[in-house]
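Colleagues,

For the teaching module next term, I've prepared a clean inverse folding example: a structure given as tokens, and then the sequence designed for it. I'd like students to try predicting residues themselves before seeing the answer, so please don't circulate the second half yet.
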């Protein structure tokens, strides 16, 4: 029996993809992107190796209708030495938020570093020098990749 004999019984892949509702597919891709980013812990090289195409080192500002700005951005002590937990109040949906940190002068745009995209109003970050100062900012990422304005920055000393 040929390996191709049962091929006609299987449903073709393309028609199944065409019938998948776009919002369901977008939601699945968002969840996959969040998982990839959590595993990579903000490491751009790991994200690049994953082959997941939607993560870049920052999303360009757009006027795509994202009007929500994260509120109550604050730092909390992390789990271990050199780690910190960033928290913020989101818009109440399962949206993703882009996080940037700065260990230098926060008024210099080049000093801000992309740390990843997170959901749930929380980002666990590590690898900081104890006693150093860290600033952060957060912005909402829309379903089409458009982004909102940055939150007010928050600052903490790493313990």
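(Answer key — instructors only)
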């Amino acid at each position: 029996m040929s390996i191709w004999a049962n091929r006609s019984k299987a449903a073709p892949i393309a028609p199944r993809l065409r019938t998948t509702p776009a919002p369901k597919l977008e939601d699945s891709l968002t969840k996959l992107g969040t998982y990839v980013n959590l595993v990579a812990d903000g490491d751009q090289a790991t994200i690049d190796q994953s082959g997941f195409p939607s993560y870049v080192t920052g999303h360009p500002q757009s006027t795509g209708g994202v009007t929500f700005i994260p509120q109550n951005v604050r730092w909390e002590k992390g789990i271990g030495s050199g780690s910190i937990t960033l928290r913020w109040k989101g818009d109440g949906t399962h949206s993703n938020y882009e996080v940037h940190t700065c260990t230098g002068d926060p008024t210099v745009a080049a000093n801000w570093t992309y740390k990843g995209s997170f959901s749930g109003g929380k980002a666990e970050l590590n690898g900081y020098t104890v006693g150093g100062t860290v600033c952060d900012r957060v912005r909402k990422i829309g379903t089409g990749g458009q982004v909102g304005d940055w939150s007010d920055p928050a600052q903490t000393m790493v313990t």
